[in-house]
Amino acid sequence: MRKTVREFPSLMTVRDVAEVCGVPVSTVHHWAVRGGGPPSFKLGKHRRFDAEEVLAWINASRAAGARSR
């Protein structure tokens, strides 16, 4: 009998996102509460971000910045 292996998305913490984006942790908390940052969700009391969505958000923000120049 063969077992199926499930792949779960890579989850990032607020600190991970802050480090990748080069911003303070408080900025990521602000984005999560007020909008404007990558999509996030809560697991219990902990905020998490899907790594692929964070990358997509960074790429979209970069593209938007290039268009506004």
List the helices and strands and how they pair.
Layout: E1 11-12, H1 14-21, H2 25-34, E2 41-43, E3 46-50, H3 51-67
Antiparallel strand pairs: 1-3, 2-3
Report what the structure shows.
By secondary structure, this protein is an alpha+beta fold. The protein has a single domain (11-67), classed as Arc Repressor Mutant, subunit A (Orthogonal Bundle). The chain is built from 3 helices and 3 strands. A 3-stranded antiparallel sheet has the order 1-3-2. A hairpin with a 2-residue loop joins strand 2 and strand 3. The longest helix is centred in the C-terminal third of the chain and has 17 residues, at 51-67. The chain is globular, with a radius of gyration of 15 Å.
Which CATH class is shown? Answer: Mainly Alpha
Number of domains: 1
Helix content: 40-55%
User: Which class do the helix and strand fractions yield?
Assistant: alpha+beta
Hey, roughly how much beta strand do the residues contain?
5-15%
C-alpha Rg (nearest Å): 15 Å
Report the count of strand segments. 3
- Uncertain spans, ≥5 residues at pLDDT below 50? none
Shape: globular
Secondary-structure element series: EHHEEH
Strand order of the largest sheet: 1-3-2
